[in-house]
Design brief:
The chain has two domains: about 250 residues, no CATH class; about 150 residues, Protein Transport Mog1p, Chain A, CATH 3.40.1000. It starts with a helix and ends with a helix. Helix content is about 40%, strand content about 20%. Helix 3 packs across helix 5, helix 5 crosses helix 9 and helix 5 packs across helix 10. A hairpin with a 5-residue loop joins strand 8 and strand 9. The protein has about 450 residues and is of the alpha+beta class. The strands form four sheets. A seven-stranded antiparallel sheet has the order 6-7-10-14-13-12-11, with helices on both faces. The chain is elongated.
Amino acid sequence: MDQGGRRLLAAEMLVFILSASAAAITKDQLRVKLGFNLFSPQQDIQVGRENAADVDKKLPLVNDPEVVRYLNNLGRRLASFAPYNNDYPWTFKMLNSKDINAFALPGGYSYVTRGAFEAAEDEAQLAGVMAHEISHVALRHGTSQASKMMMAQMPLAILGGMLGQSSSLTAQLAELGLGFGVNSLMLKNSRTAESQADEVGTYILHQAGYDPHALEQFFQIIEKKYPQRTLQFFSDHPNPENRVKDLDAFIATLGPSPGRTTNSRDFEAVKKRLLGMAPPPKSSAAAEPAAGSTGPPPAPSARSVKYQGAGFSIDYPNNWEVYGSENSVKLAPPGGLLDNPEGEAAQAYGASISLYHPPNQGGRSWGLVDATQQLVEFLRQSNPNLRVTKQTGMKLRGRSALVTAFVNDSPVAGQKERGSLVTVRSQDQLLALVFVAPEPTYDTYRSTFDAMLTSLVFP
């Protein structure tokens, strides 16, 4: 081999070594690890598939073949670089909504709104949004969150192998008051989960050859250009502290990038196609739940409507909104849900109703007092300043019930809240109702809460 050939071979070997080294370094530098999870990856897929069918029925989709093809080609390419991939059947769909948002269900079922696509200035920014959602799926944030809540509610039943006894995992989760449906608060992420998805999403961008700064660029652009249309995005994706600074520091550790792609002809063609379509419907369920508020919500209406849950019904003011699933529902006025310090939706006003399966104690059937105490301790795990002020008995539809009054820190900044937890046995379950409002306004809500409790019907 001549001298020129040896130089060329040496250069090729150096490029190969540097590329392999960079790939190995970046993967090893990922600080994010999988969290606690009771579900198997196959159960993630089942939960995602069942809930995706519900989403597809309730929300308008963009079914244009060119849009669907482009979105899935881009999404599946990005997903191929995701750590902890688990061979999910990655599926990407577009919601026909002007809202700027995106979310993903367990098992690889991901959605991006038309508004988010149109707000992205280039393909790298769109890829950043999609890589962020792919990261939530790969890190199994949804079922990890559900697992923690299940263990807190009923550890003995879980450890006894409860999962897998039903053909529908979604129905089984609904029995525990958990769900991933359209308005489910389970779709909201904590700031910790957002930070993890930021890091892994940026890693995916880097590995796929995109500008790794594109994700933070998208956050900054939509916040400045579309403040009213991004309220829901930052409600569902709460801003971690020092988000941009942390991403910049992480990007600096990634080493040489395989490329710095920012745009493509396909992206421009699809964006032009979308802009030429009829505008999205004016209202979109994708924008719910609308957590966050400025000022107190409107007073409860004197007129009521009935909510039919799984095993109970209750009347509530007709100017309130419904969030959650049949077995765990929040009834609140507009603006009644606010972000807590963790960036998660916390109820400041209104009522919540849930059904629980308390574990038997030492082979004995659970009692109302012990089950209520267990529930109070569970609430204290996320509300360490919750203090019980009084507990009294009452009759509810001829059944013995407990009323546990409490005070706590309110999600409304600088205020305390008052509330009452009402518990009653309904067949083999504990029916729990929580009524809450900031302390200065609690008395104005009392008559509404009393009327709701009077209207309650259960077997």
